[in-house]
Protein: DUF1906 domain-containing protein
Amino acid sequence: MFGVTAGAGSAAILVPEAATAQLAPVPPAPGDGPLADSAIGTPPTAAPLSRLTGDQRLFQANFSSRGLLSTQVDEWVLEAQRWVNRAYAGRPGFVPAPESGRTGWPTMFALTRALQLELGLSGSQLSDTFGPTTLSLLASKFGEIKAGTPENVVRIVQCGLYCKGYWGESISGSYGQATEASVAEMRSNMGFTDGRRTVAPKEFKALLTMDAYVVVENGSGLVRSVQQWMNRKYVDQSWFFIIPCDGHSSRDVAKALIYALQMELGVAGANGTYGPGTRSAVKARAPITVGMSDSAMASYVRLFQAAMIFNKYEVAFDGLYAQPVADQVRTFQLFVGLPLNGTGDYQTWSSLLVSNGDPERRGDACDCVTEVTAARAAALAQAGYRVVGRYLSNVPGSTLDKKIKPTELATIFAAGMRVFPIYQTYGGAASYFNEQQGARDASLALEAASDYGFERGTTIYFAVDFDALDNDITAAIIPHFRGIGKAMELYGNPYRIGVYGARNVCSRLFGQGLTVTSFVSDMSTGFSGNLGFPMPLNWAFDQISTVTVGSGAAAIQIDNNIYSGRDYGQAKVTTRDKLDTYFNPAHRPAIDDRFTEYIDQVESNTANLVHTVSESLDVIVAYDEQITNLSRSYGVRKALVQSEIYWEYWKRDVLDAGVDALVQSWYVYRHQREAWEQVPVGPAPTPPLVVREDCSTGIAQIFAATAIRARNWAMQRGLIPGNQLDAEDWHVVENVWNSLHDDGTYNIATVPLVLFQGADEVGVTGLRLNYTETELKAIFARYNGTGAGAELHGREVFGVYQIFESFNATTR
Structure:
């Protein structure tokens, strides 16, 4: 969970050299003999300094990561797990810790249950939660943990210290100098400055969490300073529990900040939730303006500064609202779409503290599951809405019909509004998301969007419609969107990828480069991925409330969205002839027969071919989804792509494999030569007898040079993203050739680009569904080169085109 880096502060315990000679022998390391504890016998006596230093080897390993939760195997964490399991084995309600040597919640839960047993709870009274009963019993029975506290309670503290990365005095059960020093360091990291070396009940509760108290994972030192200040200021409040000081805002930190604000404003029933009472109190308070400052007792300005800092806006944390703070506030207001007044007013407070901000704001965008009729479109436009989100699909098996209706888009456009498309089938649980499902969703979304006529470059928002935890995002959602991206790339990148989801989902996907813009489900204020997380940098639509617009037949319930302008939506769609769809297996026998008849008419060579007509059709069927989606992506007939792939695969002869081998041997030599040039020891490598740097290869028999030329042409015209490929760099040529040779999907994705680039060369421009016979023959001919042989190729492949087209037309 947390990276292992140097901890904050140094608490190394230095033993004078003169004293070391008088020390008793160091106790055995774990594994060398029994570690004394009350569960297995009376602890042996040991000199204080011997106890303090413990096993120097393990001490040094721990010391390198003071104050952090261990993510690597740590022998003392392992010993803590072994001790708690030995000490409480068989006790009803106790759940053993995993003996892994890694800190985690199961270990903290085991230590919590151990403490509850020491407090007199038993059986079903035990819980993983360090709740009010545990805290109250701890305060009344033991108070602050210090020297003289029962040994097993001290050992639980020492185990917790090890799990946090501090020295735990060999789990001795004696609250000696080493334990005091570690507790003092931990408390200092928490933000306390009083130097106390005992463990108060709230500090014990914090010890048995996965919270860190030093900056981790690129956290902010400024955020940490605010967290430490909050711990110092509010620890004595009954509602406050020690928060992490790791340099990151979080749900618990955000709730603590709201609690603090409620206390500042005297809100009755304070609960850490930014509800109606808190909103009213903030509205009633005058906005914070330049020159205002906190008095000795008040902290209103500091709390506002803390909210800015937690939202990643660096301002002074000094209780003075100076002009630089106001300037940063204007920057924040601009980013989230608020009036630019530079003050700490109600709307700004709200946007800083809760995901939906001021839900009374009317946005310029909306989304809905209901058909936008002409009357409803007029009502929306009159209410000031300019962009409408509508669904490309329904959830299979659901009775809710939310997908776009025929003519609905034209109705919305006629009212002067634009549209952004949303794709959602299930998407309501982590179990739905994986890379394979992402690829499937990309294909289905492309099919639906192209059917509606959405043009290339439109952003489709794929929905993550549940409260995804951070580990859900890592394990399921990121792979899912990686699958979407890979599939869209194979289909020619027809649509840009957006996401609908909580803030953390949106930000993490954007950080991975998997989305362009985000549609943020900020209306779900209770989502763990919203509270405590700043607005995603790429937000386009911010869903903040549900409202009803219009009345009577014009009434429509919508989700009200703030609109950033990062995605304008679409003002039109392209009306096309019906697009091609997937291969119909029922046609297979008839197509085989047609091609068997057709080869009798072929004038070009048919001797020594390695694939049959039927095997060639197998390839077309195997890659049908990709071929279909490429045709939809580029707005051309599917037969255009099918024909060239079929023909080239069928026409592969027995010599082609040998030529491929020559190219491969050439690049083996190039790598050997390159390595020798870097370290010129011994004779230079000998080049192959026959040099072949490039050849046509793979399913559709494409030269690397041809692919590079076609891909660069497509990039220049915005058909595909990417940087220009350097055809003079043999490494680039080799990489492209290997991709063509080894990766069928890459080879097939290159086919339409070669066809389009060749068409451009012969004067057939544009991507069209209705090329003429003359144009098609010219395009096919250029794929093969120039001259009489290429013209024959064009005529013969056109015959293949006619066969495929005749069958494709029946399924449109």
